[in-house]
Amino acid sequence: MKLERVEIVHVAIPLVTPFRTSFGTMTTKDTFLLHLVTDVAEGWSEFAADPEPLYCSEFVAGAEIVLRDFLIPRMAALPHLTTAVLADALAGIKGHELAKAALETALLDAELRSYGMPLATYLGAVRDRVPAGVSVGIKDSIPELLDDVERYLAEGYVRIKLKIEPGWDVGPVRAVRDRFGDALPLQVDANTAYTLADAEQLRRLDEFGLLLIEEPLEENNLHAHALLQQRLRTPVCLDESLHHARDTAAAIALDACRVVNVKPARVGGYLEARRVHDVARAHGVPVWCGGMLETGVGRAPNLALAALPGCTLPGDTSASARYFAEDITEPFVLVDGHLPVPDGPGIGIAPLPDALRRFTRERRDLYAA
Ligand code: SMG
Ligand code: MG
Q1: Which residues contact 354 (CB under 8 A, 6 or more apart)?
Q2: CATH superfamily of 121-340
Q3: Most buried of 59, 227, 231, 296 (most Cβ within 10 A)?
Q4: Ion ligand 2 — residues with CB under 5 Å?
């Protein structure tokens, strides 16, 4: 393939309700799509981070510069453009996994479309639909939380994840267990809000039979997570701390993580996400696909990943309506608590031109041959 054009499309889509985590509140999905054009096919992808570096160090404006000045020139210099050689060509640029993932995914979409293969087939998916979990933000009160959980369960979600932070942990978890019972698949996500000094408080969560506690301590501190795991029955799951298959292997070896949240963006793309999955599966460690409040452009490829054999827990792969009154693609709709794995070529979806136009703030070429 020959690269002809890379276009960046900044979009902003209002969320149906604010989404609060231990690090902030989101009211709009404000990000960019990449539209990559080659001589044989086109591809789309979505950048997973936000305008501010609160979840991770990458952010929208910074990623545009990294793509324009460092990543795309290396891609454009390749004599034969394929995803097989892209990651090596970008490896000299340190970090910036989310920006690299956006570029690789758009290329992978174009490449797979050029020979008519769905991403799910390429990755080795074993399911044509995947169970959907939902991530529930921090609320102002327990009754408000219980109303939200009740509504999501009525919609069919098969697993609930509660965002927690100091002061909003044991109380909400107990209230949800009391109201909805012990059989409800339930897990929590702290987004790095605790320290080892909080181990006793986190141990109080053990009595609720949670599937996992996600990223309780500071990012990248595998040692501290291993020490915490020694004191908890609840399995520790890492999110922010895992950046590739190598550190996933290290985390498993250290017993810093007994469950893996794989986000393709966080690990540099779907090819590395497949390797993360393979490492975890080889160790018998359950994997699930995380989410970054993606529009349909990001959700579609995540569903393909969630259909891999090692993804044995429901992901944060919720329906479009969880976040958006109107998605930028055909919406993903929950059927019996599941979402369909796209079966069209590439990521199997593309933005709807009319919705894209209305949600677009700016578009520019980052590269034109
Ligand atoms: O896509 O439903 C989704 C979001 C799930 O909670 C979610 N994501 O740490 O796992 C996580 C968070 C990261 C984004 S919070 C703005
Ligand atoms: Mg998380």
Answers
A1: none
A2: Enolase-like C-terminal domain (3.20.20.120)
A3: 296
A4: 189, 214, 239
Q: What's the token pair of residue 305?
A: 């990943």
User: What's the CA-to-centroid distance between 80 and ligand 1, angstroms?
Assistant: 36
Q: Where are the domains of the chain?
A: 3-115+349-368, 121-340
- How many whole angstroms separate alpha carbon 315 and alpha carbon 312? 9
pLDDT tens-digit series, residues 16-55: 999 999 999 999 999 999 999 999 999 999 999 999 999 9
Tell me which CATH homologous superfamily contains domain 3-115+349-368. Answer: Enolase-like, N-terminal domain (3.30.390.10)
Beta strands (DSSP E) in 60-132 are 129-131
Question: What pLDDT is recorded for position 37?
Answer: 98
CB-based pocket (< 6 A), ligand 1: 21, 26, 55, 135, 189, 191, 239, 290-294, 316, 318
* pLDDT 10s digits, 215-260: 999 999 999 999 999 999 999 999 999 999 999 999 999 999 999 9
Distance CA 290, CA 302 (A): 8
> How many other C-beta atoms can be found within 10 angstroms of the C-beta atom of residue 284?
10
Site to probe by mutation for ligand 1, drawn from 22, 25, 52, 55 as the one with most ligand atoms within 8 Å of Cβ, is: 55
Which active-site residues does the annotation give? 163, 263
Helix (H, G, I), strand (E, B) or coil at 301: helix
For 207, left (φ over 0), alpha (ψ -120 to 50), or beta?
alpha
For 111-134, the pLDDT digits (tens) are 999 999 999 999 999 999 999 999
